[in-house]
Specification:
The structure holds two protein chains of two kinds. Chain A has helices at 3-6, 9-22, 26-39, 43-53, 60-80, 82-91, 95-118, 127-151, 158-169, 185-200, 202-210, 215-223, 234-262, 267-282, 300-313, 317-324, 330-333, 335-358, 364-379, 389-410, 423-441, 462-488, 493-504, 520-535, 538-552; strands at residues 451-454, 456-459. Chain A is mostly helical. In chain A, strand 1 and strand 2 form a beta hairpin. Chain A is globular, with a radius of gyration of 23 Å. The model of chain B is unreliable at 1-8 (pLDDT under 50). Chain B is an alpha+beta fold. Chain B has helices spanning 19-24, 26-29, 126-153; strands at residues 13-16, 33-47, 50-56, 61-67, 82-83, 86-97, 103-115, 118-119. The longest helix of chain B is centred in the C-terminal third of the chain and has 28 residues, at 126-153. In chain B, the strands form two sheets. Chain B has a five-stranded mixed barrel. Classes of the chains: A mainly alpha, B alpha+beta. Chains A and B meet through helix 7, helix 19 and helix 20 of A and helix 1, strand 2, strand 3, strand 4 and strand 7 of B.
Amino acid sequence: MQPEKTFSGFYLRIRYGVEFLFCKNAGNSLRNHICLAYYLGRPIDFLFGIFFEMILKPPLKDIKHIGYYLGKITIGVGFTCFVPFIMGLVFFKEAKPALDFLLSAEIALLCGLILTWACATDKELNWMQGMVVVSLSWLVAMALSAIPLYLSGHYKSFLDACFETMSGFTTTGLTLVQDLDHLSYSHNLWRHLGPFIGGQGIVIIALALFMKGSAGSFRMYVGEARDEKILPNVIHTARFIWLISIVYLIIGTFALGIVGILIGLKPQNAFFHGACIFMAGFDTAGFAPQSQNILYYHSQIFEIVTIVIIIFGSLNFNLHYQLWSGNRKELMRNIETRTFLLSVMFTFFIVTIGLSKLGVYPNALIMLRKGFFQLISGHTTTGYMTIYAQQFIREWGDLALTGIICAMALGGSACSTAGGIKMLRVGIIFKALKQDIKTLALPEHAIITQKFHHIKTIFLEDRQARAVLLITFAYITLYALGALVGVGCGYPALNSLFESTSAAANVGFSCGITDASMPAVLKVTYIVQMWAGRLEFMSVFALFGFIVALFKGK
Amino acid sequence: MLYAVLCVPYPAFSQSISSAELINNAKQYDGKLVVYEGEVIGDVMVRGEYAWVNVNDEKNAIGIWIKKDLVKDIFYTGSYKAKGDRIEITGKFNRVCVEHGGDLDIHAQSIIKLSSGSKISHAVTTKDINLALGLSCMVLLVYLLRARHLKKAS
């Protein structure tokens, strides 16, 4: 299929109608076009398609295809449970936690085997099925991975454990764990392994390990908010993402481990903390093995190494590939790194003004250390903190908090482990704005082109700007909706907006709202926000359309 | 029981103050002598003549900057396998510690060991083992049946 050629808006809207009225198999074709409409940034076509999609009932074979691939990913989740099981049994000598992981692995394997058996197929996934598999995979992974955490006894309810795993997989870092300082090594490892798996992508790991290269694989890859192929083959791309993540894991763990020993941690704890902090830092999640987060270490050098790791994690995997290939100039030429630098400077300026105005810190050096750490942690959507959550609200003041909210909302790079609107989109919006201003200022017959550099030089097209604006609009709506629910639950507006942005942009900062005692409706809202924000909406919309069609379609 | 006294002035707040109270009203307590108690958690991080001890009062943990000599008798620190020693600290509370890069901390002048920690045992029950074995058998059975079915189908 050549979407660029066949996808003319008016023609397609007519075609939707005709197919809907006269064709038996209108559903699949229509669903493919909905996804393409989103992918190509055609909001009207997308909404039009979703409207018809919700009327057409999906055939049984669609459900079977989805079930089969979902089963494969469930088996994958089951196998990952063996990592903390083996570590717990062999290295940490923690029999009870190891057993929790064995039980969870068995439940996941059982579900996966039954699904792949009952829904056996050798057919490829189409766009819609790929999207539904991805969005469902994240929910299934959340529920199955929550089992060992719930069995640990450190969560007040299964919903809290689900919140924790969704927070981990989506690299958010908001936590509802109770008495973290007494959690076992195995369960702590699992908490940090979640971001490492989810940051790279749950489906990416399945693609890299269990699947053959195919069009269906690419559809799932796109569904997981990874629309950039680093290498021509999607499987090679997935494997490359895992290769660099593991190489950095080894280097990062070693660096943090050595620093840990130097600052007084016991050697085994230093390397365990190093691995955990690396996994949650590189994957911009912000989980830490101790309740004080990074404040636990009381060390500037530890904070500096962590900053380097989180900045690396927030860079585009495509940019990592360029750097690995020796193309170092790309770092300074790329629109994302340039936008990131400008955005960090701008938001840090706001934070600095806010903190200075209130005299929160006695000197510039301390303000730089505290202010910049929280800012860069928020901007890269990591959420590591060197202050207490309550200090944000009680000491930082509205202006500094607004700077942090802006930084969180903008986020890191596309095709990275970071969340938020993303730097590529912010850069494109500014380029489009610049083009529009030029169009207004110059004579009517002048031909104005705008280009940007992202791996290669690209001429900005209207459809790119539209696609970017659509997703940006969706993010802003998500931030606002979460804030509204927070206000509805009785929390102040700024606090609600802060927490909502933190959840939807997958940051993990908390101003104190996220707590086991918060209303269940808010927990569910944040889970949905984290999930939709990580998947960048398309797969979630597709699942929504699919479910409505399943029950209401004809 | 350890009791170390180093010419400690009388604390402004003689009753133990919770971490939540200290963090939420940090400006009020800034620079004052306070009494804080809780369980020692994690590692005792020795830095030259001093050490960092993190003390958790079940709500939050606060970093305590303390002379190395005063931590000698801390035997158990809280982790999965142990309940840490419970100590009471008298020291200067800093909302933004200039000496430590702006951390919220307490510079201890004396500590009292209120109670000793202990090892925690986490026993595996027979019920758990039976459940794991039962599930293992089910996984194996489903795997074999599925493999047979798929072989027939192909």
